[in-house]
Amino acid sequence: RMMDHYYNTLRDDLMYMTYLHEPGPRKPPRQIRLKYDPEDPYTKNRVNPPVGGSQVGRKPAPPTSWDNVVQLERIQIHTMVKEALSSRVNLLGPIMMLRALSGETQYGGGRHTSEGVQVVRGVKTVGGWIRPGLPVGAKVDLKGPKMYDFLGTLTEFVLPRLREFPGFVMPAPSAQHFTPSSVSGVISVGLPPEAMGLFPQIEVNLDAYPGTYGMHIHFITNAEGQGAQNKARALLSGLQVPF
Length: 243
Hints:
By secondary structure, the protein is of the alpha+beta class. It has one domain (33-239): 2-Layer Sandwich (50s Ribosomal Protein L5, Chain: A), CATH 3.30.1440. It contains 5 helices and 5 strands; from the N terminus they run αβαββαβαβα. It has a 5-stranded antiparallel sheet. The chain starts with a helix and ends in a 5-residue tail after the last helix. InterPro entries: Ribosomal_uL5, Ribosomal_uL5_C, Ribosomal_uL5_dom_sf. Residues 135-243 form the Large ribosomal subunit protein uL5 C-terminal domain. Pfam families: Ribosomal_L5_C.
């Protein structure tokens, strides 16, 4: 139902809301001077950043057209368990939770792109307690109909039953709009541990889990460039996610 709502109603509305008319072709991008001469043999292997810092946040949005209307590409659910650093057994509960929420298994349904629930391992040393290679959590990616099914469950069963939940916090009006995160088109929200027991897949068998776990939900869209965050929030608002 959520997927039909997007393709039949919401997609057209989003195109009208985010359409930006450009009367002519765009000017070619301005060439950003590098700090060192790339032809200089003395600086050939040196890191050569552009003058003025990173240009990622200044990336313009692509021209508006019917084939780049903002849409969900995938939803990633991630949970971190600090107790897993002392014993990997503590990861079994989060893995069971993510499998119940997503229904995903590796190569499930004959899909070679299905990776199932994955163990998240440390990449670098953080504060002396996270080291490279140590398991610190679990994550799972949802695509296609399962993605919309999870979104429908989240907005219809979980969020309305959260006590004292005013909605997800919007960034302040004074927030910078030229940061890499503001042009990525990814919206990240968090749920407390008590929200885990509100999912119907877990509520029917909550006693089987050794504890409750919070989670981060990353809504990954195809929006990019300046204004990508606003487009992504407009899409999620149309899909009943409260901000």
